[in-house]
Design brief:
Strand order of the largest sheet: 5-8-7-6-9-1-10-17-2-18
Radius of gyration: 26 Å
Distance between the termini: 54 Å
Number of strands: 18
Largest sheet: 10 strands, mixed
Strand content: 15-25%
Shape: globular
Structural class: alpha/beta
Helix content: 25-40%
Amino acid sequence: MKNYIQLFTLIFLVSFLQVDAQRRQKNKVAAQTETSEAPKLVVGIIVDQMRYDYLTRFWNHYGEGGFKRLAGQGYNCKNHHFNYAPTSTGPGHTSVYTGATPSSHGIIGNNWYDKEADASVYCASDESYNSVGTTSDAGKMSPHRMLTTTITDQLRLHTQMRGKTIAIALKDRGAVLPGGHTANAAYWFEGDDTGKWITSSYYMNALPQWVTDFNVSGKAQRYKKAWTTLKDISLYVESGTDNNAYEGLFETETAPVFPHSTPNLLSKTKDFEIIKYTPWGNSLTTDFALEALEKESLGTDAITDFLAVSYSSTDYIGHKFGVNSKEIQDAYLRLDLDLARLLNALDAKVGIGKYTVFLTADHGAIHVPAYLKDQKIPADYLDWKETRTKFNEFLTYTYGTTDLIKNISNNQLFLDRKVIANLDMNLDDVQEEIAIELLSYNHMDKAYTGYQMWQNEYTRGIPYILQNGWHQKRSGDILLVPKPAYISYPRMGSTHGSPMIYDTHVPLLFYGNGIKKGSTVNRTEIPDIAPTIASMLGIAFPNGTTGKPIVEVLE
C-alpha cells in the first residue's frame, strides 16, 4: 500500500511539473508576442538648439512627467553627437530622419549657394507649389532638395502607405524635412500678423477642417501674453544674472529682464511672430500636436503611424538671450511641462506601452563669446569685413582678379571654375593656395580643400566631421574652421553651426514600446537614430543610411 501511495505521488508530481512547464512556456510566448508587437505610434521629438547639459543643468527643477520620465524610464544616450558640420536646423532635422549626413542627403545648410542655379537656395523652398492656408508665399515649400528617404518614408512604404505621417513645427523646415517625401501632412506656423498653421499644396489643396477650426479657435491669441518665470526667479541659480550685457532686447525694452511684456506680446491682433521667441511657441506647438493626435486618429489601429514634432522656440530664445540666460532656463522648465502634457495624452489616447518616443536636438549652441571673454576664456568675434579686405588684396596680387570667388557661405568658399580655366590654372593648386592664405589669418584654426575631401577618407577629428558635411556636387572648394568660440554673430545671444563639441553634443532619449531602460556613455551619432527605429519596427533603413542601430537601446 505504501508503494502505491509513493507511486501515485510521483505520477502526480511529474504531471504537475509538466503542466506547470507548459503554462510557463505559454506565458513566455505570450509575453514575447506582446513585447514584439510594433508600436501603434512613433513620436519623434526634436528640440531646436538643445545642448546636452540642459538635461543635467536644470534636472533638479524638472517635474517627474517630462524629461525625467523619458530619461528615467527610457534609455539615455549621454555621449551623443553630430558627426558633421554645419550644425544647423535644416541639416539637423534631415540627418535625424534620414540616418545619413549632408554628404549623402544633400541638405548642406539652411541656405546654400547652388552652383547650377548660381543663386542662394533655401533648404525647403519650392516655387512649383502654392501656399495652403495663407495668401503669402510662406507655404511654398517641399522636401524636393532632400536626396534620400527618411524613416517616415520607409514606414509609409512598408505599410503600403496605410501608416500615417504628420509633421509639425513652428519652422517650415522643422516640419517639411522630418515628414519626408511621403508625409500625409506637414504643418508650420505663420507668425507676422497671421498667427495660423499653414501647409503647402505639395501635401494637400486645402486645410483639413480641424486645422481651420484650430486656427480660428483663438488659441494663438491667448498666448499673446506677458512672459513671467514659472518659478521664483531667485531659484534659477543654474543661470547667469537676469540683467546683463549678453542678451538681446524685445522692442521697447531697456533691459533684458523679466517680466517680458512688450506691446506686441500683449496685443491680440498683430505680430504673432513674437510668440516664437517665448515658451508659448512650444506650448502652441504642443496644443496643435495634441489636436493632430486626436483628429488624425494617430495610433488607433495596428498599423504604425508617425508623429514628428519639432520644438522651435528654444532656438529663437537661445539666439536672442544666450545659453546662460534665465530665459533659456525658464523655457526648458516650461517645455518640460509641455512634454508631460504630450506624454499623458499619448497614455490616454494610444495606451501605455503602445507607443515609442525618441527625443534629440538638431544642434547645440555656444556660450556668448563676450561672456566667455569676461570669464578669461579664449573667445571672440570674427570681423569678416576686415578679413575680406585683406583677402581681396591677396587675390588681386596673386591672380590679378577677385572674380575667382563665386560665393562665401556656411564657412565655405565656392570658386568660379570658368575663371580658373580661363587663367589656365589648376583647380587643386588654387584651392590649396587660398586655403593656406586663409589659414594664416589670426582667427582661423583650420582650412581644408575640396580636393582633400575628395581624395581622403577621414575617420576622426574635425576633418571627419567636415567630410560628413561635404557633398561632392553641392559643397564648396575651401572649408574653413574658425578658432573655438570665435563666431560671426552679434555680441548678444548664442549661435551654432561649427564642428566644435558645444555644437555637436546633444541629448538622445528613447522611451516606450521596444525600448530598454538604461543609459550609456558610449559614443552614439545622429545618423544612428533612424536605423535604430527602423530595426525596432522591422522595416527597411532609409536609402542613404550611414548610421548603425544602437543595439543597447532595443529590447
